[in-house]
Design brief:
This protein is mainly α. Helices cover about 70% and strands about 0% of the residues. It starts with 20 loop residues before the first helix and ends with a helix.
Length: about 270
């Protein structure tokens, strides 16, 4: 059962005077990506077809992800009454589909799949924390705090099941690191860029992947601060079996922060 519902959100706190256009564009895009939770649930249940315990957990996770999209979509419609969330979701789903027929993990193993899921939750928990801290709009802040807490709990969920499977598959830390890096590179793929395009361009617009990708990354990079990046690196290190605190962590976080600043300035 979810820790909160849409009815728990203080919708009456919405302040239209404090809506920032750049944050609105990001929230619209996020509302579409989160709706993919149902498809990812089906994919995960296929990959873990003989693991009823994990399937039950994945279904709860998927429902919570869809709820995140619904909350962000409702806020986006308050902030921009012309935004048709349902229509945007339909356009997004038509242009970007998860492989629902896959029976094995695209990561090569179940441990690899769970490492990849940890990386996704690492990114989302930090992203929504950053959005909550940067926005001046009180309702969006409340929504993002709830979502960030869920995403951190989801990270712990996948991390726990990853350790359970490590006892069987024994995927070494360097191979886990390879999976993690691969999943991080996938942030360059179409899912985020296309969501940003669909959420913020007119229905008849032509998708220019490079332009949409650049626009999304530039906007998203601006919400981060050094402590968010340090958290991403620490959680990533933990997922792959490296020490989450220390010199290597600090060096990696510094490199990642500099790269983000370059993206923000692009």
């Amino acid at each position: 059962m979810s820790h909160w519902t849409l009815n728990d959100i203080p919708w009456d706190r919405f302040d239209p005077a404090k809506v920032e256009p750049s944050i609105l564009r990001l929230a619209k895009a996020a509302s579409l990506v989160e709706q993919n939770g149902a498809d990812y649930t089906r994919y995960l249940c296929n990959v873990f077809a003989d693991d009823a315990e994990f399937q039950d957990a994945a279904r709860i996770w998927g429902r919570e992800e869809v709820q995140h999209g619904a909350a962000l979509g409702r806020w986006s419609t308050l902030a921009d009454p012309s935004f048709d969330h349902a229509a945007a979701c339909a356009r997004f789903s038509a242009g970007f589909r998860v492989d629902l027929d896959a029976e094995r993990s695209i990561r090569g193993s179940r441990v690899g799949e769970l490492v990849a899921r940890c990386i996704v939750e690492t990114g989302t928990s930090s992203y929504y924390t950053a959005l909550a801290e940067v926005t001046q709009e009180p309702l969006l802040r409340a929504i993002c705090h709830r979502i960030a807490a869920d995403e951190l709990r989801h990270y712990k969920l996948f991390y726990t099941h990853m350790n359970r499977y490590l006892a069987r598959e024994r995927l070494g830390r360097w191979r886990r690191l390879g999976v993690a890096l691969g999943r991080i590179r996938e942030s360059e793929d179409d899912e985020l860029s296309y969501a940003y395009f669909v959420a913020n361009e007119a229905p008849g617009a032509v998708y220019d992947r490079r332009r949409a990708h650049r626009a999304y990354l530039s906007a998203a990079a601006r919400v981060y601060r050094p402590h968010h990046v340090e958290r991403v690196v620490a959680m990533t290190f933990k997922a792959v079996g490296l020490k989450p605190h220390g010199r290597l962590n600090l060096l990696t976080a510094d490199i990642a922060w500099r790269a983000l600043r370059r993206r923000a300035a692009a």
